[in-house]
């Protein structure tokens, strides 16, 4: 049985060096990370088999007009808006302009945030700077051990695209509605079970996580990532956002073909001295 992912509770300024080759044979990772975070995240993963690709489950999808649904409390600052009608069997977007047609406004759900995470900027930023504990009340939907948070908005029967600015050691992912959150019997970290998918930056490469296994993708680093989900078709794309301002473009990091039979939510794993910031669409910035 693999160990359960536990959030760190003590500060340590020393860097962690990987154990002898017999422990993590398939992990070519080069990280300058907080010791407790690295032990926490690596201790719950198995890296000995190649990353499996899941079959497509999008056959026979009917055309619908989806509306964004919120998973959190009422009164969110994120505006309600309709996505384009769902049309099956159309060409997948490839340029940033194509992806932006499916823009999906998001807000972080503090009801799901593990207690080492701090939510700010009207629910658009999550930070973990130390071992300080945020006094969130205990809730059944809250992550208990893994330093993670979900968004209020989920996707079901539609396509959606969002972008996240980040710094430090984070994993940006997609999580099924009923994925485990307590880590008592099934691992709950993003990418360490069969119902979540994630990408994090590791040294000179991106690392793709699913079902407790990972693969490296050699690409230049960036300060923002885009995520595209076609829930009925079972497609998840993680993209690197490159360039500046009006000239920004996206580059594919990895594409999953997955079985997603239930609503899925954007999710984030946050290491010490790291953050994720939900980016706004340019029109939203002008309105504010």
From TrEMBL:
GO terms for cellular component: cytoplasm. Residues 69-90 are annotated as: Disordered. Coiled coil: none annotated. It comes from Austrofundulus limnaeus (Annual killifish). Keywords: Metal-binding, Zinc, Zinc-finger. The keyword Metal-binding applies. GO terms for molecular function: zinc ion binding. InterPro entries: B30.2/SPRY, B30.2/SPRY_sf, Butyrophylin_SPRY, ConA-like_dom_sf, E3_ubiq-ligase_TRIM/RNF, PRY, SPRY_dom. This is Tripartite motif-containing protein 16. Pfam families: PRY, SPRY. The keyword Zinc applies. Residues 86-287 form the B30.2/SPRY domain. It comes from the Eukaryota. Transmembrane segments: none annotated.
